[in-house]
Amino acid sequence: MADVPPTRMNQQIFKGKKKAAEGGHKLLKKKADALKVKFRDYAKAIAETKSSMTGDSSNAFFSMTQAEYAAGNFKQKVAEGSMTARVRVGAGVDNVAGVKLPVFTKYDTGAAADNQSLGLVGGGKKIQNVREKFTDLLEMLIKLASLQTSFQTLDEALKVTNRRVNALENVTIPKIEGILGYIARELDELEREDFTRLKLVQGKKEIEIKREAAQKAKEAAKIMVSGQARPKSNDADITAAFDANDDEDVVF
Amino acid sequence: MGDNSATCSSVYCNQGWAEVLTHMSPYGYANFGVAFGLGLSIVGAAWGIWLTGSSLVGAAVKAPRIRSKNLISVIFCEATAIYGVIMAIILTNKIKEPENPDYYLEEGWDYNGYYYAGYGMFSAGLSVGLTNIASGVSVGIAGSSCAIADAQDASLFVKILIVEIFASALGIFGIIVGIIQSNACTFPIAALG
Amino acid sequence: MSTPAPQAAAGNIATFNILHGFPEALVRGMRSSFLGDQDYHHLTQCETLDDVRLNLTETDYGDAIADFNAITPAVLQKAAIEKLVTEFKYLRTQSVEPLATFLDFITYEYMIENVMLLLKGALSGRDINELIEQCHPLGMFKESTMRSIPTFENSARGYADLYQTVLVDTPVGPYFAMFLQESSEHQGTDARHVLEEVEIEIIKSSLIKYWIEDFYHFVQKIGGETADIMGELLRVRADTNAINITLNSFGTPLNEPAMRSSDRKRLYPAVGHLYPAGTTELTEVSNEEELGRVLDLFPQYAAIWSMHASGGDKSIDDVFYERDVQSLELAFESQFHFGVFYAYAKLKEQEIRNLVWISECILQQQKDEINKFVPVFSFHSPWRGSKRR
């Protein structure tokens, strides 16, 4: 604080800084609010998805049990099938109040479905059911992953924003205000110092004037005594008495 | 063969298969009766024990409690053998030698009684033997089922045992008829008066 | 394929026991090892798998699960199958011809599954020991065959060799050869391509079809009671397969008009009540409605189909299982035939399915569904009077 020279220019600079800080604070506060709203939305969506997923996943796994009851153990057959992915997950970007959120989307690769005739001699319909259930579950899972990642990113962003808001509010702005106060105090002090000095100079000057006036009167009396030399000397010395270099400039 | 039999006109020549019946000694018939009666009965008993035994042993693997109880099925089968033995003893006792054994039978020999006794005992033996085969097999089958059923449910044992008793009764019919058949058979031991 | 004639006759009521009385009584004795209504009742009341384990220690499965501290459905299934295999092997060692061949026929079904697994797994480059682990123990090949499988190199040539030198010599080799021959005649591709291109499930269905036909002809040659009872079981089995194949093909390439008469028709067994009139009609079927119309002509299947069509609580698989259990139980009603051995194996399989189902339901907290299994030799079965004895 002390390293800021208390000058009028600095005062102007810091006044500008304060204005900027307050503007930034206001904007960040708005952003934080917007993020908070989004954050809550996501939290809600995650809670909903998760709660519905517990049911769905247990359903899906139970349908598998049903299918194994009907068709025997078909896991190995699925495992031995061709291993080309039929579904892939793509990543996109969503922008919320300047925060980039990842969005995962499922898309079909268009690979031919294999193992279509699984459970041909029994349980085929059940296996079909398992396939549907797990496809749904996969979609939910992707949605949840997308939400969860967004949630975390948002959380991070929200924390950063809040930190910034708080820093502006509690550190930066008070600091600027402190500096401004310091500058104002210092400037006032300088002003008062100048005033006193001026007063002192004025007092001295008055004494000098009085002395000179007395001297002049003495000389005038002398001239009156001696004749007409008085006006001449009066013309010659009127500016000489106030030499410009005698006084310091007063700078305000 | 036909040509030979047609050319043979002697009384000592065989006139055909029918002569087997008349040309065999009634003593032979009687003893064959004993042999068939006993032998077939024992075949029946053995068959039944085999049928019962194999099932009994198998069923007892998982239900060891049945093994002594179901021995009764084996005993029922054994009973058919005993019928055969009884009949054999009865028949054997009826076979009597002539008083004066000689190369030829005496004059005035009771040929009717002689053949009657031989054929009667032969038939009695066959009656007993054949009924006992049937009885033995059916007791065996029932006994096999009895062992298997008992292994599953002990309350079935008595019920199937009754079936077995009926199957066993078949042999008794045989032996009763056999005894009656052989009752009138007495081998003449000497020439008639 | 010509089914080999049995080396000896099975015998009639008076002679059956001479050779087969002991194993038959054994398998009938084993009938008492089935879980009863009481056991199922206790099992369905369990809250945890530990309770299940505790309840099972009282039953015939006690020894099988004694070594496990904690059971999972998978462990339970494995232990139960091991137990079944032990019992089956015991029966097999006690049997003489033609029962021995009959029992071997039962294992061929599992062998087919194993061959498929090994070949397909080997083609996709899996570790052969890992594959052997997954095989059904009832369908294991001879020790020497098993040992020789991993010696083949991991290449196309190696698999061709594997097929030509090893698998052909297994009991299911002839079925395989028939399938490959038929396929290559049909599509003009060689063996390796058929294995790669045709779906595993379709190959399996074809082999099962040959197996059913072969088994059926075998029991017909045995004759007597066996031919009647076992023949009926296999006819029904063949019909079930035909109906299931048709039903499950809807929505798959197999239902395309061109495939229907070529590929799908080839999967229908050439035995059974539906053959030949029914299977010919099934060839033309393209959706459930048409299938229902065809099955309406066969009273025994019309009832089953109506259960499925009404969309009730039971799926068609459940109805088929129920019907299977009923007819397999009936095989135990008659003595002096081989059907009981097949029935025993199949009913045990059903029991294992039930156990896995119950334990899965407990594990997954699906108490509402826990009673949806088909108990074996239950006094509450719909086809029995509710009266106890």
UniProtKB/TrEMBL annotation, chain A:
Query: Gene3D superfamilies given for it?
Result: 1.10.287.3240
An example Gene Ontology molecular-function term: proton-transporting ATPase activity, rotational mechanism
- Is-annotated flag, keyword Ion transport? yes
Q: Which domain of life is it from?
A: Eukaryota
Q: Does the keyword Transport apply?
A: yes
Which is a Pfam family this sequence falls into?
ATP-synt_D
Under InterPro entries, the record lists: V_ATPase_D
Any idea which UniProt keywords this protein has?
Ion transport, Transport
Q: Which family does it belong to?
A: Belongs to the V-ATPase D subunit family.
Protein name (record): Proton ATPase subunit D
Instruction: Name the source organism.
Output: Seminavis robusta
UniProtKB/TrEMBL annotation, chain B:
Domain of life from the UniProt record: Eukaryota
Q: Which GO terms describe its cellular component?
A: proton-transporting V-type ATPase, V0 domain
Which species expresses this protein natively? Answer: Seminavis robusta
- In which compartments does the protein localize? Membrane
Mind telling me what this protein is named?
Answer: ATPase 20 kDa proteolipid subunit
Molecular-function annotations in GO: proton-transporting ATPase activity, rotational mechanism
Q: Which family does it belong to?
A: Belongs to the V-ATPase proteolipid subunit family.
Membrane-spanning parts: 29-50, 71-93, 113-135, 156-180
Tell me the Pfam families matching this sequence.
ATP-synt_C (PF00137)
Q: Where does the UniProt entry say this protein principally localizes?
A: membrane
The residues covered by the V-ATPase proteolipid subunit C-like domain are: 32-91, 122-180
Q: Which UniProt keywords apply?
A: Hydrogen ion transport, Ion transport, Membrane, Transmembrane, Transmembrane helix, Transport
Q: How does it sit in the membrane?
A: Multi-pass membrane protein
The UniProt entry, under InterPro entries, shows: ATPase_proteolipid_c-like_dom, ATPase_proteolipid_csu, F/V-ATP_Csub_sf
User: Which lineage ranks, top first, belong to the organism behind this chain?
Assistant: Eukaryota, Sar, Stramenopiles, Ochrophyta, Bacillariophyta
TrEMBL record, chain C:
Q: Does the keyword Electron transport apply?
A: no
List the keywords (alphabetical). Hydrogen ion transport, Ion transport, Transport
| InterPro entries for the chain | ATPase_csu/dsu_sf, ATPase_V0-cplx_csu/dsu, ATPase_V0-cplx_dsu, V-type_ATPase_csu/dsu, V-type_ATPase_csu/dsu_dom_3
Gene3D superfamilies, A to Z: ATP synthase (C/AC39) subunit, domain 3 (1.10.132.50), V-type ATP synthase subunit C domain (1.20.1690.10)
Gene Ontology cellular component annotations, sorted alphabetically: proton-transporting V-type ATPase, V0 domain
Extract the GO molecular function terms from the UniProt entry: proton-transporting ATPase activity, rotational mechanism
Q: Which domain of life is it from?
A: Eukaryota
Summarizing the function annotation, the protein's role is:
Subunit of the V0 complex of vacuolar(H+)-ATPase (V-ATPase), a multisubunit enzyme composed of a peripheral complex (V1) that hydrolyzes ATP and a membrane integral complex (V0) that translocates protons. V-ATPase is responsible for acidifying and maintaining the pH of intracellular compartments and in some cell types, is targeted to the plasma membrane, where it is responsible for acidifying the extracellular environment.
| Protein family (similarity comment) | Belongs to the V-ATPase V0D/AC39 subunit family.
Self-association state and partner proteins as the record states: V-ATPase is a heteromultimeric enzyme made up of two complexes: the ATP-hydrolytic V1 complex and the proton translocation V0 complex.
The name of this protein is V-type proton ATPase subunit
